[in-house]
Amino acid sequence: MPVRLVLADDEPQLRRGLRVLLEADGRVEVVAEAGDGAALLSAVRATAPDVALVDVQMPGTDGLSALRVLLGRPDPPAVAVLTTFDLDDYVATALDVGAQGFLLKDAEPEALVRAVLDLAAGGAVLDPRIAARLLPRLRAGRLLRPNPQLDALSTRERQVLELLSDGLPNAAIATELGLSEATVKSYVSTVLMKLGVENRVQAALAAHQVGRTW
């Protein structure tokens, strides 16, 4: 079954282009489009998608306000923020709200498809270009501080975190490390708890901050 996706952006032409790219090989189905936050919330209620890609800057109810509502509901879809290379001030807040990924609108089609599939499988997605620009902003705003708990991770937990920071879902991490998916899920929960972060993207950023060398 293809991954069911809701696409939210206020530019109809961009939505059409992304839809064509994402649906090209049949692994992703765009079940609804939305031009603002209110339409996004309605679309998610109506279609129960696996993933939502959301532009935070939209008219009316903006994407960030919609994310606060959406991610506060039981069993929300996995959500990634769509942005341009010129990062706006909303990205750090979207991270705090609980977005599970950050993607550039000009990413290669295969990268976008892979990101949607990874999100649906429980992974985190973070375009390397976004990480490079986001980290200095977060540090400057004191929203991201060196995490002393990185040194407290075991060797296996560090391996899990490194693969997690590459955006791999639990199943792929399990294959890479020769573990069961349930074991990886337990490791991920422990890593999040030890680092004191709320989600996989925040853990990935903590790893990227130190170059993933401990």
TrEMBL record:
It comes from the Bacteria. Pfam families: GerE, Response_reg. The modification 4-aspartylphosphate is found at D55. InterPro entries: CheY-like_superfamily, NreC/VraR/RcsB-like_REC, Sig_transdc_resp-reg_C-effctor, Sig_transdc_resp-reg_receiver, Tscrpt_reg_LuxR_C, WalR-like. The keyword Cell membrane does not apply. Residues 4-120 form the Response regulatory domain. GO terms for biological process: phosphorelay signal transduction system; regulation of DNA-templated transcription. The keyword Acetylation does not apply. Residues 146-211 form the HTH luxR-type domain. Keywords: DNA-binding, Phosphoprotein, Transcription, Transcription regulation. One of its GO terms (molecular function) is DNA binding. This is Two component transcriptional regulator, LuxR family. It comes from Actinosynnema mirum (strain ATCC 29888 / DSM 43827 / JCM 3225 / NBRC 14064 / NCIMB 13271 / NRRL B-12336 / IMRU 3971 / 101).
